[in-house]
Amino acid sequence: MIRRRIVLAAAAGLASTLLLAACGSSNNDASSTNPTNVAPVATATSAPATSAPAASSTSSSEHMATTTMLMAKTMQGMGSVVTDDKGMTLYRYDMDQATPSMSMCTGDCAKTWMPVMAQDSVGTMGVEKTLLGSVDRTDGMKQLTLGGWPLYRYMGDTKAGQMNGQGKSKMWFAVTPAGKKATMTG
């Protein structure tokens, strides 16, 4: 009787592990998330060779963020801002440029302000998919852009809905669904 329970428990554990492994793997088919809009991320112009030197692939992969969805969320006192699929606020940097897209946040900056890396396709909810794009970073990675502006997550935001990076150094701002700077409302 005890052996039978042990065998059943082991089989259930193995089945659970296999199920979790299958659920954890993804072919990045955005249709499984059923978003309002799914857009392939277009590549914008590359950052010029005069930007900061390329970082090693080890350091760049340690300090990046990825997302499969951009969502418009209404934040008290701020109006509508863009968050990622985890509800984390996304930011834009005044030193970057939108036309052509260029990211100026490299090295130590990218450790605090993690570039949001472009996926093959990104879903949108409340964000116009035609505003999505990407820019080639000096480290060889593709960064997601909105309205031409490269997107970032702030290390100081530790849970969904926080906006601790808003107005930091008077150069970092939460991004609106139109790619503009978020400002206080009312």
Low-confidence stretches: 13-39, 42-61
Could you say which structural class the secondary elements and strand pairing correspond to? alpha+beta
The mean pLDDT is: 77
The helix/strand series, from N terminus to C terminus, equals HEHEEEEEEHEEEEEEE
**Radius of gyration, taken over Cα atoms and rounded to an integer in Å:** 20 Å
Largest sheet: 4 strands, mixed
Q: How many structural domains does the protein architecture include?
A: 1
Strand tally is: 14
Biggest sheet strand order reads: 1-9-3-4
Q: Helix segment count?
A: 3
Envelope shape: globular
Percentage of helical residues? 10-25%
Strand content: 25-35%
> In whole angstroms, how far apart are the ends?
69 Å
Description:
Helices cover 18% and strands 28% of the residues. The protein has helices at residues 2-24, 57-62, 108-112, and strands at residues 37-40, 65-66, 69-75, 79-83, 91-93, 97-98, 101-102, 113-117, 121-125, 132-136, 142-146, 149-150, 152-154, 172-174. The chain has one domain. The longest helix has 23 residues, at 2-24. It starts with a helix and ends in a 12-residue tail after the last strand. It has a four-stranded mixed β-sheet with strand order 1-9-3-4, with no helix packed on it. Strands 2-8-13 form a three-stranded mixed β-sheet.
Question: How are the SSEs ordered, and which strands pair?
Answer:
Layout: H1 2-24, E1 37-40, H2 57-62, E2 65-66, E3 69-75, E4 79-83, E5 91-93, E6 97-98, E7 101-102, H3 108-112, E8 113-117, E9 121-125, E10 132-136, E11 142-146, E12 149-150, E13 152-154, E14 172-174
Parallel strand pairs: 2-8, 3-9
Antiparallel strand pairs: 1-9, 3-4, 5-14, 6-7, 8-13, 10-11, 11-12
